[in-house]
Amino acid sequence: MTKRRELTQQELDAATRLQQIWNAKKKELGLTQEKVAQLCEWSNQSAFGAYLLARVPLNTDAVLRLAKVFKIHPTEIMPELAVLLPTTTIENTTESDVFTAEEKTFIKMLRRVTSEQKKDTIETIKEFIRNNQVVIEELTQRNMNRQVA
To answer: Is the pTM of this model over 0.90?
Structure first.
């Protein structure tokens, strides 16, 4: 059996960032390791697990796939990709494929109202989410299951 090479510090740092992103996003996005593997079009969960546990180094293709799943810019996982990629992030674009048509419409409408109305709208949505978290999680999971099928 061939012994794996040790990861470089840069590769270990990327794995650490991936772990932090995973821990921050998995509940919010309703993800499991198996679901991430499916969305990345990997054959099973073990590929994601190997990246997550720094058993194998992340490659550019994996970073791009994971960034799409986590709805982040790839440089949040691997900053050294900044020289190759545009700096656009989810927060400052509405033209990216990461937004659905409904989300784009919502953003356009939100831009038309006053700051106070925006704050009120955001607070209303936050309260709705707090009050309906279980239902929202179930609906999100059903929607994700439908997308995979």
So the answer is: no
